[in-house]
Design brief:
135 residues; alpha+beta; two-stranded antiparallel sheet; two-stranded antiparallel ribbon; 16% helix
């Protein structure tokens, strides 16, 4: 019995959990990618890029997932496939709630935003090229 327990213990050192697969659907086809073992556990590989490059990677099929993306108007042209609009190149998930757009200012500065872009036009503000948050 001791030999069996020792053998089981030794064998347990050589076994490990398989990475959890990640599955998503594109054009009614399920795509499954294996997870990868990292020091902190299992997961999938993520890279962080500037927004325009992230869109390019996804539209050209070099990235599997682009996030966060909240809305794509039907008339937005792809900057990477010049004869197509962006929607046919990407698939949006179901809406994710609570993705409100906000302004951030220094404590000593006020923003007199009344819901129109005209109300902040004279103030300095920044945006992300090729990005639309909502209609």
């Amino acid at each position: 019995m001791r030999i069996f327990l020792i053998a089981a213990l030794v064998l347990s050192f050589f076994t490990y959990a398989q990475p959890a697969p990640v599955t998503y659907t594109v054009d009614n086809k399920n795509i499954t990618l294996p997870g990868k073992k990292y020091k902190s556990g299992y997961g999938v590989h993520m890279e962080f890029y500037p927004w325009t490059r992230a869109v390019r990677e996804a539209e050209l099929g070099k990235a599997d997932i682009l996030f966060p993306e909240y809305f794509i108007s039907d008339d937005v042209m792809s900057e990477n496939t010049l004869t197509k609009t962006r929607n046919p190149l990407l698939a949006l998930s179901e809406p994710i709630p609570n993705g409100d757009l906000s302004f951030v200012a220094l404590r000593d500065h006020s923003i007199d935003y009344d819901g129109s872009i005209e109300s902040v036009k004279k103030q300095g503000y920044g945006g992300v090229r090729s990005y639309t948050n909502s209609k």
